[in-house]
Amino acid sequence: MRPRYSRILLRFWKNCLLREMTFRGHFILRVFGEVGWVFLLLVFIEVIFSKTSHVRGWSEPQYLFLMGTHMLVTSLFETLFFENCWRISDLVRKGDLDFVLVKPANTQFLLTFERIDFASLANLPVGIALCTYAAIQGGFTITFGHSVLFVLLIGTGVCMLYAMLFMFALTSVWLIRQTGLDALWFYAMSLSRYPAEIYRGFAGGTLWFVCVFVVPVLMVANLPANVMVRTFTTPFIINFIVAAAVLLILSNIALRWALRSYRSASS
Amino acid sequence: MGKYFVVFRVSLAERMVYRADFFMSTFLRFIPIITTILLWRAIYDGADQTEIGGLHYEQMVSYYLLIMIVRAFGSMPKLATSIALAIREGELRKYILQPIDYLTYMLTLRCAHKLVYFVMSAIPYTLIFWICADYLPGWPGPMMFCLSVLTLTMTFCIGFAINSLIGLLGFWFLEVATFIHAFMTLQYFLSGHMFPLSLLPKSVEQVVTWLPFAYETYYPTLILLQKVSVDEALRIIAVQFVWGVVVGGICLVAWKRGLHRYAAFGG
């Protein structure tokens, strides 16, 4: 019998919500922690623009819009996928992946959606508010078409990040311990929250090339923000969407490949 | 003393087991420095002044490079979490029953971790400092060199004391992981890791530079940067010593009081 994935998904999310509500104090503290981090980043931006009027052509409202976009992407990714990717290493090391493999449902689905991190969702309204504030402050002309494209590109960016981190997490099958995932996520995000134009010179240019064409983390916030408040080219957008689709397919192939090498760890 | 040497040796061996994981984490640590350098280049290019927060561009880059050295001494990854976990899950019992002082045991482990880290990351550190040699202030004189070693030792002590104290909160609170996360975020800002504290408005700077976090990271970095005189460096180290004694003292009181509350659940 074919499993009913929508019901499984709802059950997963319900379980996670119940878990979060069991430790309400913990949940509230996490929400404050998430929003606090955003506040500190905004302080940093304020400090930057107290010293300069633009950063490689990005004015303060444009930069704030980029920051808001970045927040939307990270918030969605962390809510839906980060914890799921992160726990893959633990599942492998402790042999608990066995319990996922024996279930009569798609393995990638189970690994991808079992957890949802509701506390990370707190930055979604903050990101929307920041984008709105920046758009009003900058007086940007935003059409309905641009808004639809913006939402589509944010979704694409989130899928792209998922595929890349999922594949990285799968390396734990060979490395056994893979604690670099949170560091990788932190650094990928610290790369992608800045305007792509700052990546100049030999080191910057190389990093730009790698982060746009090899591991395309740089575009996940830059491209949607450019669509709304700066300029964009259609071929680049098409390439971005195609790259996300390819990465998603590759993540599935990588899982099958990794499972062939999985040896379990239980006695 | 012999027993702590055994702990040190075992911990060294344990740290060498997951070498691939370690190399991956160490390598990733160097990515943000490139972004930071590029971002500040863009800020200085856009600004109509050559000095920001009392630092020239070269000094700003040096600040971020040298802060990596300071953080290598002061940061204690997972120390607070492991202490809190040992308390919560009853694992602490096994240390209390042994003729060993738990905090000295943790200090020995941390020394071993640091030693392995310094040895393994020597090559990437040397490489990046060699590439960025033009930005760096040059070798300090013998006096400043001794003061630099002293300030880094104090940084290690303050870092250990602060993180242990946070971990010992586990005696009073069931779940401290979120608190630790929020604390680390705040520390990133207050210690001057995010940006030099001299960039803050004067009134805020005056408050922030009184806290132990500034003496854990910001001031030691200024000593390494040779931005302070010998007299000022001696004052900083003296204040570091006071903070080390104060936080270390609170830590010992918390340990003793915590043990009275400890019920050794779990196990």
Largest sheet of chain B: none
What is the string of helix and strand elements of chain A? Answer: HHEEHHHHHHHHHH
How large is the radius of gyration of chain A? 20 Å
Helix content range of chain A = over 70%
How far from one another are the termini of chain A?
31 Å
- Beta-strand level of the residues of chain B, as a percent range? under 5%
Give a structural overview.
- Chain A is mostly helical and 267 residues long.
- Chain A has one domain (5-261).
- Chain A is 77% helix and 1% strand.
- Chain A has twelve helices and two strands, in the order ααββαααααααααα.
- In chain A, strands 1-2 form a two-stranded antiparallel sheet.
- Chain A is globular and about 60 Å long.
- Chain A starts with a helix and ends in a 6-residue tail after the last helix.
- By secondary structure, chain B is mainly alpha-helical.
- Chain B has helices at 2-15, 19-28, 31-46, 57-74, 79-88, 92-96, 102-120, 122-131, 142-168, 177-190, 202-208, 212-224, 230-261.
- In chain B, α4 (57-74) crosses α9 (142-168) and α4 crosses α12 (212-224).
Short structural description:
Chain A is mostly helical and 267 residues long. Chain A has helices at 5-22, 24-51, 60-94, 97-101, 107-113, 123-138, 144-170, 172-175, 180-192, 201-214, 219-229, 234-261, and strands at 54-55, 58-59.
Key terms:
heterodimer, A: 267 residues, mainly alpha, two-stranded antiparallel sheet, globular, B: 267 residues
SSE topology:
The complex is a heterodimer of chains A (267) and B (267).
Chain A: H1 5-22, H2 24-51, E1 54-55, E2 58-59, H3 60-94, H4 97-101, H5 107-113, H6 123-138, H7 144-170, H8 172-175, H9 180-192, H10 201-214, H11 219-229, H12 234-261
Antiparallel strand pairs in A: 1-2
Helix pairs in contact in A: 2-3, 3-6, 3-7, 3-9, 3-11, 7-11, 7-12
Chain B: H1 2-15, H2 19-28, H3 31-46, H4 57-74, H5 79-88, H6 92-96, H7 102-120, H8 122-131, H9 142-168, H10 177-190, H11 202-208, H12 212-224, H13 230-261
